[in-house]
Amino acid sequence: VKKKGSRYEREARPIAQAAVLGAGIMGGGIAYQSASKGTPILMKDIKDEAIELGLKEARKLFAKQVERKKLTSAQMAEKLTNIRPTLSYGDFDHVDLVVEAVVENPKVKDAVLTEVEGQVGEHTVLTSNTSTISITRLAENLKRPENFCGMHFFNPVHRMPLVEVIRGEKTSDAAVAATVAYARAMGKTPIVVNDCPGFLVNRVLFPYFGGFSQLVAQGADFRHIDKVMERFGWPMGPAYLLDVVGMDTAVHAGEVMAEGFPERMAGMGGDGDRSAIQVMVDNDRLGQKNDRGFYAYE
Ligand code: NAD
């Protein structure tokens, strides 16, 4: 863990303007957090509806702060102007750091990262919020792989303190330093980790999801498993957590993890097996993002 005043921070270039690609669960949360702590952020998506949803979520979070008297309405209005929604790359040449938070699909991420690299300045730091895909692997198609690293937030972004900063094979100290500094400016606790599928947290978490999925496939009641894990002392059980994460995201991530660590990913599909989580996707039960997952939401 790199504490304040570490080598990384001393070398950091301040981030005056950030951008996030994708206005989904994570992109919307990242935009809110950045805006809330005072760093202006462009929020780009390819769909108008996604931008609307991202903004709606940010407004809701700010409104809660007003309700709790932590912000005045005037401060909320001002902070909201820190988020600039967009469907185009106009103004990306002034961005200091980009967080890519589009769908967890290596091909889509490759295309988006190559595209954005052509739009930003040569010192802009590019980061990916991928949950599982190797940073060294994502850097392969980039012209400036030294400016690229992982910046992995957890869901919900405004509540989860940890951010994994992932150093790929070619990542420079300067890129790590800028990312660590931005995470701190957002009020988060960054840890710098080496690259591997799933990094640190998901490498631990996904085999757990696999164990859960296997139990459900064998007939266990997911509610019961959640209750047991809560009694065990975890803030929520695996079914509820999967609803928060999003079933489609978990399936994509599970595939990448299974490729990296086949022996550890039993229960997450592979070998023609349909995992319990895949069955949820097939039934359009994606979790809180579409109000129905293991549980139903209003
Ligand atoms: P999501 O499906 O909620 O949102 C993805 C967004 O990306 C959508 O709004 C989509 O329209 C947009 N998009 C797709 N192609 C795009 C493009 N070319 N340019 C701009 N936007 C584009 O997904 P999410 O849950 O927010 O996940 C995003 C990333 O964050 C994934 O890599 C995921 O693994 C990672 N992540 C997710 C979680 C989680 O709990 N959901 C946690 C940590 C990290």
From TrEMBL:
Domain of life of the organism encoding this protein: Bacteria
Ranges for domain 3-hydroxyacyl-CoA dehydrogenase C-terminal: 198-297
Domain 3-hydroxyacyl-CoA dehydrogenase NAD binding: 18-196
Similarity remark: In the N-terminal section; belongs to the enoyl-CoA hydratase/isomerase family.
Protein name as it appears in the record: enoyl-CoA hydratase
Residues of the full protein shown: 304 to 601 of 729
